[in-house]
Amino acid sequence: MRFRTVTSPHVLADTSVGRVMRRVLYAMVPGALALVWFFGWGVAVNLALATAIALAAEAALLLARGKPVSAHLSDCSAVVSAWLLAVALPPLAPWWLTAIGAVSAIAVAKHLYGGLGYNPFNPAMIGYVVLLVSFPREMSAWPLPHGLGQPHAMTLLETLRAIFGGELPARFAADALTGATPLDVLRTQLGLGLNGAEIRNSPVFGIVAGSGWEWATLGFLAGGLWLLYTRTAAWQIPAGMLGALAVVATVFYLVNPQRYAPPWFHLWSGAAIFGAFFIATDPVTASTTPRGRWVYGAGIGILVYIIRGFGGYPDGVAFAVLLMNIAAPTIDLYTPPRVFGARRQ
Amino acid sequence: MSGLFAFHGGLKTARHKTESNRQPIQPSALPKRLVVPLRQHIGAIAKPLVQAGDRVLKGQIIGQPDGYISAAVHAPSSGTVAAVDQRPVPHPSGLPDWCVTIETDGEERWIEREPVAYRTLHSSETRNVLRNAGVVGLGGAAFPSAVKLNLGGRRERLDTLILNGAECEPWITCDDRLMRERAAGIVAGLRIMAHLLDPREVLIGIEDDKPEAIAALTAACAGTGYAVRPVPTRYPSGSVKQLVKLLTGKETPVDGLPVDVGVQCFNVATAHAVHRAIDCGEPVISRIVTVTGRVRRPQNIEALLGTPFADLVAQSGGYRDGVERLIMGGPMMGFALCDDRVPITKAANCILAAGAEELSPERPAMPCIRCGACADVCPADLLPQQLYWHSRAKEFDKAQDYHLFSCIECGCCSYVCPSQIPLVQFYRYAKNEIWAQEKEKQKAELARQRHQARLERLEREKQERDAKLRQKAPARAEVSAEKPSLEAAVARAKATSPAVVEAGAPATSGD
Ligand code: SF4
Ligand code: SF4
């Protein structure tokens, strides 16, 4: 009898890129739900819109590049990029903002560089930064947390009208919607000469950091820990990033507690937790050696602090991640593991 | 688990041991015709000692070891030699190799068998007996054991002698059954090995999913001072360097052998073969083969070498429906045969008839997403992903910088890769390319040296001739004095440049 010949191994683990990406999506669900609850339907609309546009862009570019469309669409990597981008957008961002962001992420940052696995920069963060730089006004239009549970909450229909038509319901004054994020407040008011403790008593802040944001962060932390537990994400990256951020923040806080926010504030506010578990851990653009991941994570942590404290933007996660994306290949080069049987240095 | 040292990476996989490890070892039916390959070991092919028409006895030597790293081959049963020619053999290359075909006479007449009193022999004589008995590693590598039983002045004494009964590959149970049923023979062989190597300690490593084997060997070792060490069931704990690390904490150097750190490691079946060769005077003419997967009665068979795979499958009730692949060895490292009419060799530990249930569905490879899952499981602490990029791009020196040759081809990286990239295939390809290039380089270098030697000889002869001429005609010496040096310069120039062009000729003509 004759048989086919194929090289070993003949059995493979039951895994796939799609499964890895879907796990990331599941892990984002608790945090995303919290965002919807506290910031309204807009978050959900953004997620759906970004997903649709990202998938359309992905399909179009796969077709144009002559790649198998269904195999790549079902790997869900475009959906992950879409979600990462969507949760970073203001909940009532006009539809075209989301569209430009998603197309920049998929078409430019991903496919122009060769598609899945070849992009040096995190696509979602490229999309986000394009928007931040080009449309700073729209990107800073965050509503005060008017969640679904609250009396003034916008209905889904009102939300859709706001996003696609640009009309706000009559009962809202425009400035009542546009709140600043806790980090914005911290920045501008520090500029006004108020001290850290006074600022943190202003209404955008909850118990530790911003209200609403806190719960979302808690959700993302839970999802992120699950990603580490299932070994979907490399644990060294969030450990390195949050560790470095905490250390730097502690040093500054100890030097001048009046001027600098305490470390727990830095860890818990802005996109620190979300970024550490979901953005920095994007395997394609991160460092891949065990030691390199520590360095990569720590680099992001330090850069986040620097940008928050001394840079032009209130939160630096996106820029920090992109900067370290550039460094990742070099970090890998200098941090290979000690090969079995090689002499110990 | 006191005294164990974990190695990095590894996998837990489905075991599939119980399919075949419940029945005792069965003797194989005597086939009408045995096809015995002359190369069943690593090293030089054995020289045939018989020709068509010769009568042979069971256990008679039919292939003589050729050189130091080689092993003898014997007639597995009595009968008549039908042919000495090239036939298909179970080898990944798929190329035929020299075999002795024996028509069996069904009488099973043995040669004279005499036990060897190894305690009174010089160790080199004992090793010679083993060499001529065709004893090679029966775990699958088939390296001549006599070579490994010689410390050769590399060190005075061995620290640790390890017997490998880990059997970490899924599906395979031949060592398990052997340990359960013939523990005394294994320990007897171990005693002979210990006599030759004089180790400070003797350890037997067995994966802890084989409690019966552990119990049997522990009982057989009573009073010997040999220690049975159960090791956690984690593929590839049975790989030599990993087992050495597990049991002793020592890492075999990148370019070295376990003996460099004072450890030597043999398979349990090899120990048993040593016992048979020395204590019974029986050469290696059979081995235990696990026949499993999609056959009706999975089992272990003590098969005569040279028995066709198909016969063992038939003896196990034949194939069940849906066999797509026939694997020699396990699913992680075994290779797929294209035909089941090839003979059992000393390296054939398992026949796995695999179908959709046993195999993984074939999915197209996706791009590498740099997830690092491969590096997390690599027992050699490599970066499989980097090896893959460089092998694929044919940047072989970079692949070597990432220690391509430390890769043991265990398959863990391919197993976990979410993109289903056939990583190990790329490493094999790269290794083969590098070997081929090395060979070419050596040939070219040899050709260059020959060419240079020839030019130098010509020049020398010419100078000698000229010197003679000068002696004969001193008056004309001034005129031609410049000439030889000019010619020498031309010859020198030629010697450096056209060597590459000429290298092709001798390269194809032999070597
Ligand atoms: S496991 Fe596969 S996809 Fe992941 S880094 Fe290794 S080769 Fe790339
Ligand atoms: S096959 Fe080679 S590279 Fe892959 S896990 Fe095994 S040793 Fe490492």
What this model shows, in words?
The complex is a heterodimer of chains A (345) and B (511). With 345 residues, chain A is an all-alpha fold. Chain A contains 17 helices and no strands. Helix content of chain B is 35%, strand content 16%. Chain B has helices at 123-132, 145-148, 174-181, 183-197, 211-220, 240-248, 268-280, 309-315, 373-377, 384-392, 396-401, 412-416, 423-472, 477-480, 482-496, 499-508; strands at 26-27, 33-37, 47-48, 55-56, 61-64, 73-74, 79-88, 96-104, 160-164, 201-207, 227-231, 263-267, 286-293, 299-304, 325-328, 335-337, 350-354. Chain B has a 6-stranded mixed β-sheet, sandwiched between helices. Chain B has a 4-stranded antiparallel β-sheet with strand order 2-8-7-4, with no helix packed on it. In chain B, strands 11-10-9-12 form a 4-stranded parallel β-sheet, sandwiched between helices. In chain B, β15 (325-328) and β16 form a beta hairpin. The two termini of chain B are 53 Å apart. Chains A and B meet through α1 of A and β15, β16, α9, α12 and α13 of B. The structure holds iron/sulfur cluster (2 copies). The site of one iron/sulfur cluster has 16 residues of chain B, from α10, α12 and α13.
